[in-house]
Design a protein that fits this description.
The chain is of the alpha+beta class and about 160 residues long. It has helices at about 20-35, 55-60, 100-105, 125-130; strands spanning about 1-5, 10-15, 40-45, 50-55, 75-80, 85-90, 115-120, 140, 150. The protein has a single domain, classed as BsuBI/PstI restriction endonuclease, C-terminal domain (Trna Endonuclease, Chain: A, domain 1, 3-Layer(aba) Sandwich). The strands form 2 sheets. A 7-stranded mixed sheet has the order 4-3-5-6-7-8-9. A two-stranded antiparallel sheet has the order 1-2. The relative contact order is 0.15.
């Protein structure tokens, strides 16, 4: 098991595996660099799809709770900027594609927070397999290079669409 201690003191135990290693890195490495001060409001696990759900935060953001299985792998909320980080951990399934954005925009149509779409990969090799499927106006983060981002947009740095 892979332990992760959250800012609220709760400890999560992830089952072993490549996908969960990426999710743990998102929580520990990505969030501390690119979503500083954000709170984890949802994360699944390969063995437990509902490993952590902050029901109160989801309700406050008007995110349908009964459809959490359609949420991306990791969801962080930055109260200061009112940004919702929607992060797919890509190890086998796809990245944030145009189709996935449409699905999430429909799911989150009542949510007023700005949406930041991120595809997170374990390494450059996995990233290269999926480059043609990554939607424009999204972000890419690689576990192997945690201090860097790849921006699939031209008119701005990181931020909601």
């Amino acid at each position: 098991m892979i332990p992760v201690k959250l800012a609220n003191g709760k400890e999560l135990m992830f089952s072993p595996g490549r996908h969960n290693l990426v999710q743990v890195a998102i929580i520990k490495e990505f969030a501390s660099r690119f979503a500083l001060g954000s709170e984890l409001i949802y994360v699944g696990d390969t063995a437990n799809k509902d490993l952590y759900i902050d029901i109160n935060a989801l309700k406050a953001l008007e995110i349908p709770i009964d459809e959490h299985n359609k949420l991306p792998d990791v969801v962080l909320f930055d109260k200061k900027h009112n940004w919702l980080f929607l992060i797919e951990a890509v190890t086998s399934h796809g990245p944030v594609s145009p189709k996935r954005i449409m699905e999430l925009e429909n799911l989150l149509k009542s949510c007023k927070a700005g949406k930041v779409y991120v595809s997170a990969f374990p390494d450059f090799k996995e990233f290269k397999k999926h480059t043609l499927d990554i939607a424009w106006d999204t972000e890419v983060w690689l576990m192997d290079f945690p201090e860097h981002m790849i921006h699939f947009n031209g008119d701005r740095f990181i931020g909601p669409r």
